[in-house]
Amino acid sequence: NLKLSEKGLKISPSLTLDITAKAKSMKAKGIDVVSFGAGEPDFNTPDNIVESGINAIKQGLTRYTPASGIIELKEAICQKFEKDNRLSYTPENIIISNGAKHSIYNALMAIINPNDEIIISVPYWVSYPELIKIAGGVPVYIKTKEENDFKYTINDLDNALTNKTKAIILNSPNNPTGTFYNEEELKEIADWAVKNNVLVISDEIYEKLVYDGKEHISIASINDDIKKIAIVINGMSKAYAMTGWRIGYAAADKKIAKIMSNIQSHTTSNPCSISQYASVEGLLGDQSSIVEMKKHFEERRNFMVHTINNINGLSCKKPKGAFYVMVNFTKLKGKKIKNVEINSSLDFANLLLEEGKVAVVPGIAFGDDDYIRLSYATSIENIEKGLSRIKKIVEDK
Ligand code: PLP
């Protein structure tokens, strides 16, 4: 008869971390599993950043820092916003946290009153609904369609709007679909948000991973009105292969930034001092390694998409950004493969793991049971090996 938190009991575990853990434990037992589960670059952190981290340790920069982060990194982040996004912020607008996930958490804690509604699109990044619930809010879902590039319209937003709507979370480029909104679409969303006084949490963690020569645009840069009500989220994890260093950041109006910083000061205090110093080098130092990583991701994407579309029963669109492919398997639904009837994305993912020794994430983790998600943050050889195993299973050879 443990008396536990009702709010806590409603939080589901992170299914993506769960699958990667299962694949890792199979690998540890010596089973040759190909994992497409990864939500992180397979590259090492660039040397110049690593060196800066080592130097920070040697110089004794190993103590508490101001709760919302060191001034050097805040200034580097302001420079980054100016250079990459045409956004002008000062250090008072910036809060540095333990990863972008933590930044989103702080943002939601700063704006949500009990039962406030936060609009997100489906498929969504696994943590959004749970983070909203932890903060006492209610996730409101807009289902998007593959034929519309997994994007919603102003009409969809109008239909989701109520007098409890507090914010939307926009994730462009998107995990898991790889879609991104162009300038015209962002302008429409910005106008809608301003008109309806709805805050925008803009998760731009995949900004550096946009392909086909296109460039990411931050919704906050559309005009000053939207900038006032936007909380821009970004971080070091994906672009700089720094997932373990845990540095994310947010830029917001000073009032919002202050509340986020106060919340952080009583929960985690500052993010790791060493990682902060290393991140200064990441943002201000040589950027050639991130250009190189992006080149690899783009090649892998092209190869993966082409190969998947040559497997009977599976199909996918070419994602425009991030490092994931949403694979549509509706043609296999109701069919029996290796004596397993495929009725859900979990059935399909389990079959692939158990029979094919390939780890994928079931779409249900993102709220869409017609898909599985494959990450191409792995080598071309692995992609080739894993997809040929999937082909064998699916074509039942
Ligand atoms: N936002 C999205 C859409 C993500 O996919 C991720 C990581 O998977 C994050 C935020 C969090 O990144 P981190 O907390 O490592 O900075």
Automatic annotation (TrEMBL):
Keyword Transferase: yes
The EC number(s) this enzyme carries: 2.6.1.-
GO MF term (any one): pyridoxal phosphate binding
SUPFAM superfamilies per the UniProt record, alphabetical: PLP-dependent transferases
UniProt keyword terms in alphabetical order: Aminotransferase, Pyridoxal phosphate, Transferase
The keyword Transcription is annotated on this UniProt entry: no
Pfam families reported for this sequence: Aminotran_1_2
Enzyme class: transferase
Cofactors named for this entry: pyridoxal 5'-phosphate
Gene Ontology BP, a term: amino acid metabolic process
Residues covered by the Aminotransferase class I/classII large domain: 32-390
UniProt record similarity statement: Belongs to the class-I pyridoxal-phosphate-dependent aminotransferase family.
Protein name (database record): Aminotransferase
Organism in which the protein naturally occurs: Anaerosalibacter bizertensis
